[in-house]
Design goal:
CATH architecture of the largest domain: Alpha-Beta Barrel
Low-confidence stretches: none
Number of domains: 2
Distance between the termini: 27 Å
CATH class of the largest domain: Alpha Beta
Helix content: 25-40%
CATH topology of the largest domain: TIM Barrel
Bound molecules: N-(iminomethyl)-L-glutamic acid, fe (iii) ion
Number of strands: 15
Radius of gyration: 21 Å
Length: about 425
């Protein structure tokens, strides 16, 4: 038989084969490893997964063979929470934090998200596109094959649409899949700082309907936190988003435990993200409603904080946990899911197996793509990484450089 591409001699082929739902509890430890494995690809899909011996015999007439040379082969990383569209980077704030100022203090004195808003408003769609393209190419270099990308640095109808158009074009032109999220409730723009109700009104009755009309985003996100959108404001905004047909993601309980996790459950969010200070009740409520916990340890690391999310308690309670970079100019300028896996293992005591599941199949489910990507199974997209590693345990252990050797997206080598 003929395949377009046959990858052979994977010392460990991490298939992640398993049930058709987000992985929880002990299923977060099952990587479905085939020793000396192989994958056969036709067009953009996986058509077979088995031992090298079997697939070499079965597909003896393949167009292209890649020898993985006894290395690790695994699904491409899925990064389900990023903010890659912005003008200027904010390393000055990083330096201020080293010297002792906090993220909230910096944002309240004119820096933070508001400084990125000034940048986006004053920059053309083309220039924003070029800047984001370069950042996303770095993510691809680090093994990301599917990405969620948020707006949220425009905060006017016009500039939010500009950001979402940039994301749409990036998805069309770059070789990976990019899922857009509307984040108009990321902050209150400076011109509405004393008239928050008016901004909420514009958000709910102008921006959100317009973005649905233009079909620029299926997901709506919000920064629920004491210094931005409180619980009552968040509830109103998210219920309106639902009414308009958006699916919900949330920045919840990052800095203070104000009940963001509970609200995520109440509104039936797909995911609640950050959760560094989420309460036991919040975790229980998320479990009851099947909300996926997306943990962002890179942000806590980069903010120099200690409040890493309680991943162990969450996994033991039965939550499906995913990981993301939170790539953004302020709180986390990290484009590598590999480094996030190292942090997840070291700082949140996730096992390597759990961190890999969280960065692939569970992240895929959080984007509604669990049936298409996130594992190496027949019928799924051929999004595959060949890793320069002798074992999968090497992934968190060897940090600070890139373990990815080859990136395959939709059956094509893109790196
Ligand atoms: O996820 N928390 C809100 N948004 C980003 C930070 C954005 C920024 O500081 O520019 C985050 O950490
Ligand atoms: Fe974020």
């Amino acid at each position: 038989m003929k395949a377009d591409l046959l990858i052979i001699n994977a010392k460990e082929l991490l298939t992640l084969a398993g049930s058709n739902n987000p992985r929880t509890k002990s299923k977060m430890s099952d990587l479905g490893i085939i020793n000396n494995g192989a994958v056969a690809v036709k067009n953009d899909k996986i058509i077979d997964v088995d031992s090298t011996e079997k697939l070499i015999n079965k597909y003896n007439n393949s167009s292209k063979i890649i020898d993985a040379n006894n290395e690790v082969v695994m699904p491409g990383f899925v990064d389900p929470h990023t903010h890659p569209v912005f003008k200027q980077t904010r390393e000055n704030e990083f330096e201020m934090r080293i010297k002792g100022r906090s993220y909230v203090e910096i944002s309240q004195s004119g820096g933070g998200i508001r400084s990125s808003i000034r940048g986006v408003r004053n920059t053309s769609e083309n220039e924003l596109y070029k800047l984001a393209e370069k950042r996303i190419n770095n993510m691809i270099f680090n093994g990301t094959t599917t990405l969620e990308a948020k707006s949220g640095y425009g905060l006017s109808t016009e500039s939010e649409i500009k950001m979402l158009k940039v994301i749409k074009k990036l998805n069309e032109n770059l070789p990976i899949d990019i899922i857009p999220t509307f984040l108009g409730a990321h902050e209150f723009p400076i011109e509405y700082k004393d008239n928050k109700e008016e901004y909420i009104n514009i958000l709910m009755n102008e921006m959100m309907p317009r973005i649905r009309e233009l079909d620029l985003a299926d997901y709506c996100d919000i920064f629920t936190e004491d210094h931005v959108y409180n619980i009552e404001q968040s509830r109103r905004i998210l219920n309106r988003a639902k009414e308009l047909g958006f699916k919900i993601r949330m920045h919840a309980d990052e800095i203070k435990p104000i009940g963001g996790a509970e609200l995520a459950a109440e509104v039936g969010a797909v995911s609640a993200d950050h959760l560094g200070t989420a309460s036991d009740e919040g975790i229980k409520a998320m479990l009851n409603k099947g909300v996926i916990a997306i943990l962002l340890p890179g942000t806590i690391f980069s903010l120099g904080m200690k409040s890493y999310a309680r991943a162990r308690d969450m996994i033991e309670a039965g939550l499906a946990v995913a990981l993301a970079t939170d790539y953004n100019p302020g709180s986390c300028n990290c484009d590598s899911m590999q480094f996030i896996i190292t942090l997840a293992c070291l700082q949140m005591k996730m096992t390597t197996e759990e961190a890999i599941i969280a960065s692939t199949i569970n992240a895929a489910y959080s984007l509604g793509l669990g049936d298409k990507i996130g594992s190496l199974e027949i019928g799924k997209k051929a999004d595959i990484l060949i890793m320069d590693m002798p074992s999968y345990q090497y992934l968190p252990y060897h940090f600070g450089s890139n373990n990815v050797e080859t990136v395959i997206k939709n059956g094509k080598i893109i790196r």
